[in-house]
Structure formats: C-alpha cells, structure tokens
Amino acid sequence: MGNVTNRDPLNLLWLQSGGCGGCTMSLLNANCSNLFDTLEGFGIRLLWHPSLSEESAMDARSIFDDCISGVTRLDILCLEGAILRGPQGSGDFHRTTGGNSMMSIIKRLSGVARHTVAVGSCAAFGGITATGSNPADACGLQFEGDSLGGLLGRDYRDSSGLPVINIAGCPTHPNWVIETLAALASGMLNGQGLDVFQRPRMYADHLVHHGCTRNEFYEFKASAHKPSDLGCLMENLGCKGTQAHADCNIRLWNGEGSCVRGGYACISCTEPGFEEPGHPFTETPKLGGIPVGLPIDMPKAWFVVLASLSKSATPKRVKENAVADHQVVVPAVKRMRSK
C-alpha cells in the first residue's frame, strides 16, 4: 500500500482497559524504523495512547470530550484489553480521571467512531481477563467468548457500516495491527475482509500449521515427547497449530520465529475461549489414544487411518530426529542419473 498524502490524516485514539498491555509491547516490535512515522505515512495521526503519548490524563480527557462532542473527528478507535463491566454492570472496577467508568467512555466513543477496532483477544472476546469466575464481568467489544454481544451488542455497526474489527491474538502480531490500520486508511477493508469472528482475513484465512518447520514430523506422526524435541507437538504436547487461524509461521515474529519454532506448542490464542481449554496448555487430551482436538476440516475416521499409515511408513531419519533436540540423522544422498 502506498502512502496516503492527498487527504486529511485519519485520527486514531487508542485506549487500554482490562489487560496486560502486551499488544502494545508487541506493536513496538513492528518491522518499521519508527511506528509513528509509519502510521503517518499511511495517513494516520495518533491522537493519544496511554503508554506512548506525552499528554497528561487531564489532557487525554479533553481529547475524549472533543471526540465525543464532534470537535475532533474520531476516525479509528482502538481498544486494547477487555471491558470491565463489574460490579453489577456499573463499570466502576475501571474508572478514569474525571470519575467516569472506562466502560461508559468506550460506549460513547464507539458511537461516534468511523471505525472501531479491538486489538488483542481480550478486547475482541474477553480473553485472559475473563477467565475463571470472571469477577470483573469482563467481555469483548462485540463478543463474549464465541457469542455475539459483548459491550456494544450484536447489531453494533460503526459509522462506515462495519462491525467491530477483531485483531485477535495474545498478543497480536504487530504487522496484523499495522496492516489493518493501513487498510482502513486506504479504504480497502470491508465486510468481505472479515471472517465469522470479525478477524481480518489477511491473517485469519491461514492456519498456524501453514509453514510450520515441523510439518514433516506431522505428516509421519513422528511426535515430540518433550518441548526440546524436534518432532510434532500435536500428539503429546498440546499444539493446536492445525486448528488456530493465524499466519504465525508464514509471517514470522520479529522476522525470525514463532511459538512452535521456539519449542512451545501453539495454544490457539487467536480463537475465542483459548484461555480455558479445560486441560494444561502443554498436554494433548486424548480419547482412546486419539487426540480430541483434530486438525480443522478432517473427519476423525480419516485421521485415524492416515495416522496409522503414516506411522508405519515413517523413515528412520524422521523417527529418530523427532525425539532429539538436534538433527541426529541427515537426509540420505541419492545419485541422480541423467536421462
């Protein structure tokens, strides 16, 4: 996408609610020399960010008021972190300078925003903040888990006609955020660009499994038994890369790695409800020796047959390397005769 220079810049306001700030930390690792210059190059002006801006809390409150009143045009509202509705729907668990609840401010700002964006799985679905008994009554902007609703309700649409855009992830990949904002600035993101959970399809139409360096081990069902092993992490160590919608192994983090490349199973953090799988993240629940969470689109019977055939055909190299922390058997060299 080229720079947007022929029109007024879009005003972006970034708020943080019930969360850890990890999506902002991730954003600061984007593949660009300067985040603010990059946004400006796409025609986006940052009005305020609670961690990155110099303005005081009172200055920020003036910015909120100007946006709500229409003195300042609000083009993009980004929320990081879940909305805290407690206690008893008052939102008083999270109050801002001036005495208003963050929940009420988010409602008012989302009512005037041209686009509303949930950054991270907490803002999108409730995420980690909504786990357990959820005493803070945390929820996402337009989803509560995998159900439509959340703070703004299933029928919410911004002034452009779009629902909340859910850049889900825990944390989000920095380029998912920048590319989504750039697409909004250029007018290239519409309803067809979002999946059923309102995630941008430019990353959600992929699976973490795509591009995984352990795919040969997966194909032969040559499985790791401990995190340092080279083998597939699905059968024993809880990896959900075949079910998680994200391009983490295609669009590498920091240009180099991903969870599974670092030896840690994919926990499917872009999906609603990932935070409470019902079992330890690094264990694979099984029924009759078969993993419960099978690859997306694959019937159970097919998986059983393919797994059995694959294991019986596993080369010695793949089998031995799968349970080692380094390559112990290299691929054979075969002489190719000219034809």
From TrEMBL:
Main localisation: other
Highest taxon above the source species: Bacteria
TM region(s), chain numbering: none
Binding site for [3Fe-4S] cluster: 248, 266, 269
GO biological-process terms attached to the record: anaerobic respiration
An example molecular function term from Gene Ontology annotations: 4 iron, 4 sulfur cluster binding
Keyword line: 3Fe-4S, 4Fe-4S, Iron, Iron-sulfur, Metal-binding, Oxidoreductase, Signal
Chain positions recorded as [4Fe-4S] cluster 1 binding sites: 20, 23, 122, 170
Cofactors named for this entry: [4Fe-4S] cluster; [3Fe-4S] cluster
Record's GO cellular component terms: [Ni-Fe] hydrogenase complex; cell envelope; ferredoxin hydrogenase complex; membrane
EC number(s) stated in the UniProt entry for this protein: 1.12.99.6
Coiled coil segments of this chain: none
Protein residues bound to [4Fe-4S] cluster 2: 209, 212, 232, 239
Domain Cytochrome-c3 hydrogenase C-terminal: 206-281
Localization: Cell envelope
Catalyzed chemical reaction(s): H2 + A = AH2
Record bears the keyword Nucleotidyltransferase: no
Residue ranges of every copy of the NADH:ubiquinone oxidoreductase-like 20kDa subunit domain listed in the record: 20-184
Record-stated family: Belongs to the [NiFe]/[NiFeSe] hydrogenase small subunit family.
PANTHER family referenced in this protein's UniProt entry, alphabetically: HYDROGENASE SMALL SUBUNIT (PTHR30013:SF5), NIFE / NIFESE HYDROGENASE SMALL SUBUNIT FAMILY MEMBER (PTHR30013)
Subunit structure: Heterodimer of a large and a small subunit.
Protein's UniProt name: hydrogenase (acceptor)
Organism: Ferrovum myxofaciens
